[in-house]
Amino acid sequence: MTTQRGQSAWFDAQTTAALLAIDPHGLGGICVKSQFGPIRDAWFAFMQTQIAPGIHFQKIPLQIQDEQLLGGLDLEATLSHGKPIYSSGLLAKSHGGFIVLPMAERVSVHTIAHIMQVLDRGEVRHPQQSAEFTPCLFSMIALDESIGPDESIHPRLAEHMAFEVRLDHLSQNDCKDSLEITPAVIAEARQRLPVIECDAHFIESLLQSAAAFGVDSIRAGLFAVRAAKALAALRNQNAVTEDEVVDAARLVLSHRATRMPSSREEQGLDEPEVEPDSAEDSEQTNEDQNKSEQEPQEQDDPNQGKDSDTDANQPTENMEQPSAEDLEELLIEAIRAGIPPNALAQLTAGLGRANGKQGSKGQFGQLQKNANSGRPAESWRGLPKGGKRLDLLKTIRAAVPWQTMRQVESKVKQPSVNNQRSHIQIRADDLHIKRYQQRQGVVTIFLVDASGSSATQRLAEAKGAVEQLLADCYIRRDEVAMIALRGRTADVVLPPTRSLVRAKRNLAALPGGGGTPLATGFAAVNEMALSIRRKGMTPLIVVMTDGIANVTLEGVGGRERAHQDALQTARQLRAAGHAILFIDTASAPQALAEALANEMAAQYLPLPYINSGKAISQRAAQLARQ
Fold first, then answer.
1. Contact 188/231 with Cβ under 8 angstroms?
2. Beta-carbon count within 10 A of 335 CB
3. What's the Cα-to-Cα distance from 33 to each of 30, 43, 150, 251, 478, rounded to whole Å?
4. Quick check: 435 pLDDT over 70?
5. CA distance 547 to 70
6. pLDDT tens readout for residues 372-415
7. Residue in 536, 117, 154 with CA at minimum distance from that of residue 365
8. Which residue(s) pair with 140 in the sheet?
9. Of 364-368, 449-453, 464-468, which gets the smallest average pLDDT?
10. SS3 content of the chain, % helix, strand, coil (to 5)
11. Rounded to whole angstroms, how far apart are CA atoms 449 and 94?
């Protein structure tokens, strides 16, 4: 059965396709969140047949090389013709069309960087042709096939695309009807687009609404304005109206929201309170101003009665335009209505989107360069010594452009070879060696506060969250370690190990009570993390405490001195550059805990607002990818 919400979402998906065809380069692209299936095929068929027929759609393979993407030396043609011949890459061939990124959530950061550079510059420049460039203007269609919340496209790629559509929740009944948009309508809208105007107060309202939802990207505001203009062109209008602004805000800003807007009192948007006496004075002043404005009009306009019919026939839209505050509230409600339900729950809980780098599922730990094993990386110039392997193709590509000059030099030095066909001359500067990269193992270090302030009410819930993290670490084959804060010391109750049973046993037997030596615990976890890093592995620190320190580094009681020591050791953790997740285990969020998290540059999560170890494990997984 067709649902009104599903059909509305399908019409929005078709509208974004039309807007992208009207202003392809200005709007960047669209992210289609959907698995492979008939719904996505129907949207793509609508895009290719009704919206952009005859326009080239270039598919970009997942594991594409730089020469294929940007263009480079055509080795076969160069060897046959005896001179350097360069071939165009897929991006240059996509000029004036669309590139399609299947499985966009797994595209490498290296490939994304090249695409973003070409998209921003509008031209392709290859390192071997630095003096020449090829115009290249295209739009992107990123097919996001991610399943879990810990798997999504790279934020830099998402930032360069104006729209995002979700098709997984739609049924085939929702997609039976389509918007009546023809290629002729798109062509007329593209011709009308350059003359479309947008008032300044509309632009200001869009930017303020974006800021209310935590959208800090300037590009998002530009996309919203461009989308409003494209909507006006599609609707055969000469200027942007309130309807286009509302629709553009919903289509462009809803999926970018990172938090829910606070009330007007919290945002400081209320008008200042006026005392009774001053209020009467202001009302009297306004009445006098209105009278003074009306009197000159009545005196200077003798033909007022003659023009009354003309004024009555003019549209009333300009007379009934909402105020800036009303328009902003309208935009906020439109953006709120466009946020998916599951994302709305996360934003309300204060989780938002991850600030760290996104990657493919299962890719944890930092990348480590290796000369002999791992995934192939870009080759470097060098000699094949010490077990390093020669990259033959890269070596030949580096040597071919210099063959004419080298053959002339050889004939001058050895005239006897004039009648002989010379072979490719390779010198030491042409040699390239292969490089490989592999991800380091991750060691998750748990710093658990088992003191009296946490043990009485929150230690059991903290243990449940740690067990969820331990299960995830076991699935990823990561090692885990545990340091407990209790009394006057920080004890290593579990050295780095892959044994899930041992970790759970030590966690269950962890007693509570005593003081909270936070500074000592921070110093101990920093020392362990540095030791793990020296072994070639990536440390991930998970701190679980209420942030209330009462034992100094010397083991002496005193909250003020203990808190200062904790701040000092937290700054040391920040200087070391560790990935840290700080979980506030107090019954209510503590300002001291948040201050400590800020000092160590950690991601702060209050446990009462989460109520789920799964959410903590997802945030830890995001940190492990950085």
1. no
2. 25
3. 10, 12, 14, 14, 30
4. yes
5. 51
6. 555 667 777 887 766 677 887 788 878 888 878 877 777 766 65
7. 536
8. 29, 99
9. 364-368
10. 50, 15, 35
11. 56
Complete DSSP assignment for 18-66: HHHHHSHHHH-EEEEE--SSHHHHHHHHHIIIIISTT--EEE--TT--H
Return the percentage of the chain with pLDDT > 90, whole number: 14
How would you classify residue 602: left for phi > 0, otherwise alpha for psi between -120 and 50, otherwise beta?
beta
Runs of H (alpha helix) within 535-599: 559-576, 591-599
Amino acid at 112: I
Structure tokens at 104: 């966009």
Q: Which of 56-60, 416-420, 476-480 has the highest mean pLDDT?
A: 56-60
Position 49 scores a pLDDT of 83
Count the helices and strands in the chain (H runs, E runs): 26, 18
**48 DSSP assignment:** I
* Residue among 152, 163, 144 at smallest CA distance from 28: 163
In sign, the C-alpha dihedral spanning 366, 369, 375, 380 is positive
Both tokens of 206, joined, read 């869009």
Helix segments in 130-275, DSSP class H? 155-159, 183-192, 200-212, 218-234, 242-253, 264-267
Give the residue with greater pLDDT, 82 vs 60. Answer: 60
Packed helices 4-22 and 38-46: angle between N→C axes, nearest 10 degrees: 40
Tens-place pLDDT, residues 332-374: 777 766 666 555 444 444 433 333 333 333 344 455 555 455 5
- For tokens 């240059």, name the residue: 92
Tokens at 275, concatenated: 């005392």
Relative to beta strand 139-144, strand 98-101 is parallel
Query: 93 and 69 in contact (C-beta within 8 Å)?
Result: no
Helix/strand/coil for 300: helix
CA-atom Rg of the chain in angstroms:
32
- Strands in 345-478 per DSSP E: 367-370, 375-381, 432-439, 442-449
Task: Look up residue 596 and give its amino acid.
Answer: L
Cα–Cα distance, 94 to 70 (Å, whole number): 11
Q: Token digits for 408?
A: 């002339």
